[in-house]
């Protein structure tokens, strides 16, 4: 065969090899003492600049690391700063249910005191691993700024019905919600796959695959319910109001959990913020719109 043929073959081989080379993920190098960081503009922001950045958005998704005091303090400071700019905040909180809303209203309005609230909301039973003290600054910020506090999550009973696929125990709305769950978002599945590599509570004769599929469906239901309730709350926003949806970071990260499901229901502009430790120097692009830096210090557990 002519030499030119082998040269052409070699060129084609090199070309396809190059195409198959895995591209490095785009990442950001973070400077020290950054309060907030925009993953869009690759710039640090102070809290005043952050408030300006949030001005166009009616809905703000903030991810949480539940055991971090300083993160909750920073969220409180952001609520206060938004209030100083003339914005009233509706805070939608992951670990409360819509059925809690009357109690949440009584607490924010100071019709009941903190001790009564903790008892009435069953904090020590439902959130027994975390101290109320850690989250108090956020709730006090809502009280001080005359904001509102809402629950958006599935109740334990609702989650169990979906996990068991106990259709007969579901009412009409619950059956419709269960039927319409979208469990085929591959990017979301891949993101959560490491967390579903084991089954901590398998049912009798249930395979690992069946268990992980069941766990994933409950996760999707969790995100979908919080998105639905956030959507309902967003429809009532006044011109000077914003909705902050505060949930675990994995519900917000990559906009694949609550934000994705919310965007299917609403045309309102939203923005996502996830927490990052102050010691982080590099982070992947695309995890959220902004990072909120906090000083890591785990609180003791109840």
**Span between N and C termini?**
78 Å
Using the alpha-carbon principal axes, give the shape: globular
Overall pLDDT: 87
Write the element-wise H/E pattern from the N-terminal end onward. HEEEHEHEHHHHEHHHHEHHEEE
Radius of gyration: 23 Å
Structural class: alpha/beta
What is the total number of structural domains?
1
Number of beta strands: 10
The percentage helix is 40-55%
Number of helices: 13
CATH architecture: 3-Layer(aba) Sandwich
The amount of beta strand, in percent, is 15-25%
Might you state the CATH topology name?
A: Rossmann fold
* Low-pLDDT segments: 1-23
**Quaternary organisation of the protein chains:** single chain
CATH class: Alpha Beta
Descriptive overview:
The chain is an alpha/beta fold and 302 residues long. It is built from 13 helices and 10 strands. The strands form 2 sheets. The chain has an 8-stranded mixed sheet, sandwiched between helices. It has a two-stranded antiparallel sheet with strand order 1-9. Strand 2 and strand 3 (43-45) form a beta hairpin. Helix 3 runs parallel beside helix 7 (132-144) and helix 8 crosses helix 11 (208-235).
Relevant terms:
Rossmann fold, two-stranded antiparallel ribbon, disordered N terminus, alpha/beta, 13 helices, 302 residues, 10 strands
What are the SSEs and their pairings?
Elements: H1 3-20, E1 27-29, E2 36-38, E3 43-45, H2 47-54, E4 59-64, H3 69-84, E5 88-93, H4 101-108, H5 114-120, H6 123-126, H7 132-144, E6 148-151, H8 156-164, H9 172-179, H10 186-192, H11 208-235, E7 241-248, H12 249-252, H13 258-263, E8 270-277, E9 282-284, E10 290-294
Parallel strand pairs: 4-7, 4-8, 5-6, 5-7, 8-10
Antiparallel strand pairs: 1-9, 2-3, 2-10
Helix pairs in contact: 3-7, 8-11
């Amino acid at each position: 065969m002519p030499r030119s043929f082998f040269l052409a073959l070699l060129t084609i081989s090199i070309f396809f090899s190059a195409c198959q080379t895995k591209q490095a993920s785009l990442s950001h190098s973070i400077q020290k003492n950054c309060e907030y960081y925009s993953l869009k503009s690759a710039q640090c922001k102070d809290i005043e600049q952050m408030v300006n950045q949030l001005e166009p958005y009616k809905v703000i998704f903030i991810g949480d690391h539940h055991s971090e005091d300083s993160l909750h303090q920073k969220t409180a400071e952001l609520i206060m700063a938004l209030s100083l700019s003339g914005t009233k905040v509706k805070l939608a909180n992951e670990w409360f249910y819509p059925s809690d809303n009357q109690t949440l209203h009584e607490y924010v309005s100071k019709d009941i005191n903190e001790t009564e609230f903790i008892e009435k909301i069953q904090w020590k039973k439902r959130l027994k691993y975390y101290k109320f003290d850690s989250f108090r600054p956020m709730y006090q910020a809502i009280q001080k700024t005359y904001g509102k506090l809402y629950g958006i999550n599935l109740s334990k009973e609702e989650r169990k019905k979906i996990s068991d696929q106990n259709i007969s125990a579901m009412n009409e709305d619950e059956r419709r919600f269960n039927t319409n769950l979208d469990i085929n978002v591959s990017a979301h599945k891949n993101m959560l796959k490491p967390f579903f590599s084991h089954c901590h509570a398998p049912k009798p004769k249930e395979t690992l695959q069946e268990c992980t599929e069941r766990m994933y469906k409950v996760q999707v239901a969790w995100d979908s319910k919080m998105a639905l309730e956030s959507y309902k709350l967003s429809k009532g926003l006044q011109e000077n109001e914003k909705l902050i949806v505060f949930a675990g970071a994995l519900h917000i990260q990559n906009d694949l959990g609550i934000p994705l499901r919310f965007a299917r229901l609403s045309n309102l502009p939203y923005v996502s913020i996830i927490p990052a430790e102050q010691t982080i120097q590099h982070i992947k692009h695309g995890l959220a719109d902004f990072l909120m830096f906090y000083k890591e210090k785990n609180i003791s557990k109840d």
